[in-house]
């Protein structure tokens, strides 16, 4: 049987999603919990990996099992063995052809930035920028990324392979000194969201013009974006599938 789960987590005290030796990870904690139920080693497959200190509102993963618990019992059982910074929101049986990563059609990320005075209680959850930014300039610059592009200049230096992605939405909203960047695309490479947001912040701070970002984008990796927003403000908000 294949079980699909939706999980929310606070990434502050994790070394990212992917399991690592001697490091606390989201995948590691979930697999330990499921092993106590299945009584065998069980590997989970997520829609994608999040980096250290990055959060998720609705991350998706699946696993295969020979146990036939009621769906709601899976949710209760896994949560029982999880630490309090990870929580299973939903668990349901799905067709064996479903894959959390390969069946995903779109992903939505949000990035939160504060232009207000430093707040120690929010430092793990909102990037404490502490200065005003030009919202109109940022919105105008964000438009250059909409559509299908080779985002090689805005990905991790150590990543190769297909860097062509389609960005459907890049919205920027401000309310009470908190700026929310909302990005929806058919996929994102490692550090891509943080590089895109980091570049836009530079435009909003009047340090570079949008033409500089366009030059990087059109170089298809030859001119790398050196601006990377901090991980603390980043959230995997939603993963969309055909049935959504």
From TrEMBL:
Residue span, Pseudouridine synthase I TruA alpha/beta domain: 6-103, 141-242
Record field: catalytic activity: uridine(38/39/40) in tRNA = pseudouridine(38/39/40) in tRNA
Domain of life from the UniProt record: Bacteria
Keyword set, alphabetical order: Isomerase, tRNA processing
InterPro entries found in the cross-reference section: PsdUridine_synth_cat_dom_sf, PsdUridine_synth_TruA, PsdUridine_synth_TruA_a/b_dom, PsdUridine_synth_TruA_C, TruA/RsuA/RluB/E/F_N
E.C. no: 5.4.99.12
Binding site for substrate: 109
GO molecular function, one term: RNA binding
Active site: 51 (nucleophile)
GO biological process: tRNA pseudouridine synthesis
Purpose: Formation of pseudouridine at positions 38, 39 and 40 in the anticodon stem and loop of transfer RNAs.
Family, similarity comment: Belongs to the tRNA pseudouridine synthase TruA family.
Subunit structure: Homodimer.
Official protein name in the record: tRNA pseudouridine synthase A
UniProt source species: Massilimicrobiota timonensis
